[in-house]
Write a structure and sequence with these properties.
With 264 residues, the chain is mostly beta strands. The chain has a domain of 174 residues: Beta Barrel (Porin), CATH 2.40.160. The longest helix is centred in the N-terminal third of the chain and has 24 residues.
Length: 264
């Protein structure tokens, strides 16, 4: 009996020894124990420097994916090409028609003493109102009284002719246009009397004239106004009045006119 107790006691001692060794070899971890094994640290969140750069996803375009690329040189469907306006050459150069009148008188003493101041009229075509060089053609006319021994009262000296001049304009496409001009003219003088001609005055003569003058024109909404003054050198094929003291009467004359017209 005693032996049995000894055997049981030995078994208990042996089991207790084995359990104590196991606990000593692998003690449970303690949170505050500095000797306890460290747990792996949690990974910090990725920063912007660590994050990869991501491109935005392409936005889907409306319409079919196989549409051709736009042609920027092609005009829109609803637009029409600009119209091209063509002007006649005379519109680019400037064309005008005008009419007017004024006064004139002979310069020589003999003719000035026998005649009164003349009334003048003209109809003129001008080509080149919008350029520095212009040309003019005109119908010219004049009428003035004449008194000489043997002529009836109310006798008149009438002149009719044609003129062509070259004109130099000081401005182009401007409201005010000064100009100078010069050319040649032909005038036919004829005597108109109310009774028989008992004097030595010729019934008619032809004159060559060279006009030189200056003028100024104004333009407003197509309306053209101009004023000009000129000196006209004149020669006749026969004297309209007799030669006095061996000298032929001088047929030079001055003239001042104003005109109104329209520029096309």
């Amino acid at each position: 009996m005693r032996n049995l107790r000894l055997k049981l006691g030995g078994i208990v001692v042996l089991v207790a020894a084995i359990g104590g060794n196991a606990a000593a070899q692998d003690p449970p971890p303690v949170a505050d124990d500095p000797n306890a094994p460290k747990q792996p640290d949690a990974q910090p969140p990725a920063t912007s420097e660590d994050e990869p750069i991501q491109c935005p996803a392409p936005v889907a375009q409306a319409g079919p994916t196989n549409a051709p690329p736009p042609n920027y040189n092609q005009q829109p469907y609803n637009e029409q090409p600009a119209e091209t306006h063509y002007h006649d050459w005379w519109h680019e150069t400037g064309f005008a028609i005008s009419a007017g009148g004024g006064a004139s008188q002979f310069v020589g003493t003999t003719m000035r003493d026998l005649t009164g101041t003349a009334g003048d009229w003209t109809v003129r075509l001008t080509l080149g109102t919008r350029s520095f060089i212009a040309g003019e053609v005109s119908y010219i006319g004049s009428a003035q009284s004449i008194s000489a021994l043997g002529l009836p009262n109310n006798s008149d000296l009438i002149g009719n002719g044609a003129q062509a001049v070259l004109r130099l304009n000081g401005t182009v496409d401007y409201g005010v246009q000064p100009f100078i001009y010069g050319g040649a003219a032909w005038r036919h003088y004829s005597l108109h009397e109310s009774g028989p001609n008992l004097s030595d005055v010729a019934n008619s003569t032809n004159a060559l004239e060279v006009p030189l003058g200056v003028g100024i024109a104004g333009y407003w909404n197509g309306v053209m106004l101009d004023a000009r003054g000129e000196y006209r050198f004149g020669w006749t094929n026969n004297d309209i009045v007799p030669t006095i003291n061996g000298d032929s009467p001088k047929m030079d004359r001055w003239q001042a006119t104003g005109n109104i017209g329209y520029e096309f």
